[in-house]
Amino acid sequence: MELTLFRVYHQDGTNGELYDGELLISSTIELPWRENQRMVSCIQEGRYELVKRYTDKRGWHLLVTGVPNRSGILFHPANEALKELKGCIAPVSKVIGPGKGTQSKVADSMLKTLVFEAMERGENVFLNIQKAKSV
């Protein structure tokens, strides 16, 4: 499975749309781009493998692997990037401003269902992050 995250960068946050082929899975929010610095920046554009992981804090979730100079990058619920994220990606049902969204838990659950089913079929899952093409 190949997912593509098309990003739009803003000073106060990064907004995106996450696709499986031509199917829109969810919108996303992230921290602004700050040169891939840990804890304050979204991760750099590129292709990364997603793996399923369990922790007591988050239960089952998706871990983004192979990010240069970064670790612990997750997909997890958050509705306000600057207050709730430290480099991770939050699926949201709707973007309402730079780095802000709504109903993140619903969007995260839908994403996990889709990706975990692919993994259970034995598929590797990759995330391609790129700048959105201008309209």
Using the coordinates shown, work out and report the CATH topology: L,D-transpeptidase catalytic domain-like
Strand order of the largest sheet: 6-5-4-10-1-2-3-7
**In the CATH hierarchy, what is the class?**
Mainly Beta
Shape: globular
Low-confidence stretches: none
CATH architecture: Beta Barrel
Largest sheet: 8 strands, mixed
SS field, number of helical segments: 2
Estimated radius of gyration: 13 Å
Number of strands: 10
Number of domains: 1
Question: Would you kindly provide a brief summary of this structure?
Answer:
With 135 residues, this protein is an alpha+beta fold. It has 2 helices and 10 strands; from the N terminus they run ββββββαβββαβ. It has helices at 81-84, 104-120; strands at 2-10, 13-20, 23-30, 46-55, 59-65, 73-75, 90-92, 94-97, 100-102, 125-131.
List keywords for this structure.
single chain, 135 residues, alpha+beta, L,D-transpeptidase catalytic domain-like, eight-stranded mixed beta sheet, two-stranded antiparallel sheet, 2 helices
Report on this model:
With 135 residues, the chain is an alpha+beta fold. The chain has one domain: Beta Barrel (L,D-transpeptidase catalytic domain-like). Helices cover 16% and strands 46% of the residues. The chain has two helices and ten strands. The protein has helices spanning 81-84, 104-120; strands at 2-10, 13-20, 23-30, 46-55, 59-65, 73-75, 90-92, 94-97, 100-102, 125-131. The protein has an eight-stranded mixed sheet, with helices on one face. Strands 8-9 form a two-stranded antiparallel ribbon. A hairpin with a 2-residue loop joins β2 and β3. The radius of gyration is 13 Å and the shape is globular.
